[in-house]
Write a structure and sequence with these properties.
The complex is a heterodimer of chains A (82) and B (310). Chain A is mainly α and 82 residues long. Chain A has one domain: ACP-like (Non-ribosomal Peptide Synthetase Peptidyl Carrier Protein, Chain A, Orthogonal Bundle), CATH 1.10.1200. Helix content of chain A is 46%, strand content 0%. Chain A has helices spanning 2-13, 35-49, 66-76. The radius of gyration of chain A is 12 Å and the shape is globular. In chain B, a hairpin with a 6-residue loop joins β1 (24-26) and β2. Chain B has helices at 9-20, 37-54, 70-76, 78-81, 96-107, 131-136, 181-201, 217-229, 257-262, 281-292, 301-307, and strands at residues 24-26, 33-35, 60-61, 67-69, 88-92, 116-123, 146-156, 169-179, 207-210, 233-238, 246-255, 273-280. With 310 residues, chain B is an alpha+beta fold. Chain B has one domain: Bira Bifunctional Protein, Domain 2 (BirA Bifunctional Protein, domain 2, 2-Layer Sandwich). Chain B has a seven-stranded mixed beta sheet. The chains are: A mainly alpha (82), B alpha+beta (310). Chain A binds chain B through residues 34-36, 38-39, 42-43, 55, 58-60, and chain B through 77, 80-81, 218-219, 221-223, 225-227, 229-230, 257.
Chain lengths: 82, 310
């Protein structure tokens, strides 16, 4: 999932640093993610993972790092059948 | 267009009184009013009072028409945040037959938009918008940045309402500061205090709080949360006729949004940030009328003196 998020960051995030080598816990806002960039990223993640973020998850913290985004998506996705 | 939210009984009553006394003049369209002489005298007095408070800033006064080049609206990113509030100007394009067909449609009060094409201008959504491209065109900012007084310009928001404080077209008195991040942030905080004093002197019991813009849709909720978390917007509110106090001034820190969008650079090579403050002149006027009564002659002498009104 982290690599998918990295790819979406490259396409949608308009970062000032290279998303493909960004550590999982790196602060995305420090890496150049703007408020509008985080909105574009949010919509791209919803489409890619077929999830919909509820209002209480539409915060800066949820989109603050690759790891935070992955944790949020994992919380929203149905548990895969065994 | 139908009104966006239902007015409170007090808002309905205040609007009826404003129209009955001729302070405002009904147009038949919610949120679009003529201003009576008595209303304008107060509004212009408020504008002059802001002039006197702003004198220390030594701001450069620039004035712009209430239309904005469409390209500037596009560059600003406004449509990503507020697609529901923008007003785009269309005009006729066609031959004599098309013109005759348009006139027939208009005579019948039928839709005539099929004869219209988008023009190069939109209605100005906020008085500071023309400032950024104008300053960018001058070249890199001088070391201490610039302060621009954009005046009390008419601005448009497409949000028809029966709340007299929610007009579709109103005068927004804006001052803009462009410069180094620390300078801009400090300037905004100074103005918030000046505004509190100004409105307190007018007997309006102002309150201030962190606020967010009316961004559109789900993504807008995310932008609003982010804006609040970073305390990028403060509002000062006074009682008018709503259940809650109404914002009459806002203090907005854009960080590098407009500088980046319009390519505003610093001579020093450092980052350029911008902030603006906006006073809603009609809303302050309505606040005065709601607090002190519709008959200005009966207002407290101290308030009239502060405004230079008899």
């Amino acid at each position: 999932m982290h690599d998918t998020i990295r790819a979406l960051l490259t396409q949608s995030g308009r970062l000032t640093t290279d998303a493909s080598t960004l550590p999982v816990d790196a602060d995305l806002y420090t890496a150049g993610l703007t408020s509008h960039g985080s909105v574009t990223l949010m919509l791209a993640i919803e489409e890619a993972f077929d999830v919909e973020f509820p209002d209480h998850m539409l915060t800066r913290e949820v989109f603050s790092s690759i790891g935070a985004i992955a944790a949020a998506v994992a919380e929203l996705r149905p548990i895969p059948a065994a | 267009m139908t009104p966006t939210t239902a007015p409170t009984p007090r808002q309905t009553a205040l609007l009826a009184q404003l129209l009955a006394t001729g302070l405002l003049i009904d147009s038949g369209v919610p949120g679009v009013y003529g201003r009576g002489a008595a209303f304008e005298e107060i509004r212009l007095a408020v504008d002059r009072l802001i002039d006197s408070v702003a004198a220390g800033d030594d701001a450069e006064a620039l004035r712009f028409p209430p239309v904005l080049p469409r390209r500037h609206l596009e560059t600003s990113g406004y449509l990503a945040s507020f697609p529901h509030l923008a007003g785009t100007i269309f005009a006729f394009e066609g031959d004599e037959q098309d013109a005759a067909a348009q006139a027939r449609d208009a005579d019948a009060h039928a839709r005539w938009d099929r004869h219209q094409q988008m023009t190069d201008v939109v209605l100005t959504p906020a008085a500071c918008y023309p400032v950024y491209p104008a300053i960018a065109a001058r070249g890199p900012l001088p070391p201490h940045g610039v302060c621009i007084d954009a005046g009390g310009a008419y601005v448009f928001r497409c949000e028809p309402s029966q709340d007299p404080a929610r007009m579709q077209m109103f005068h927004q008195r804006e001052i803009v500061r462009l410069g180094e991040p620390e300078t801009v942030a400090a300037w905004r905080n100074v103005w918030r205090e000046r505004c509190m004093t100004l409105l307190d002197d007018l007997g309006l019991e102002p309150a201030t709080d962190v606020a967010s813009d009316p961004f559109f849709g789900r993504q807008g909720r995310m932008l609003a949360t982010s804006q609040r978390q970073q305390a990028l917007k403060f509002e000062v509110s006074v009682a008018i006729a709503g259940d809650e106090p109404t914002a009459v001034a806002s203090f907005n820190y854009h960080r590098d949004h407009f500088a980046e969008r319009f390519g505003i650079l610093a001579q020093t090579g450092g980052a350029v940030h911008t902030a603006c403050l906006g006073f809603g002149l009609e809303r302050i006027t309505l606040g005065l009328l709601a607090a002190h009564g519709l008959d200005r002659g009966a207002w407290p002498p101290g308030v009239r003196l502060r405004l230079g009104l008899s």
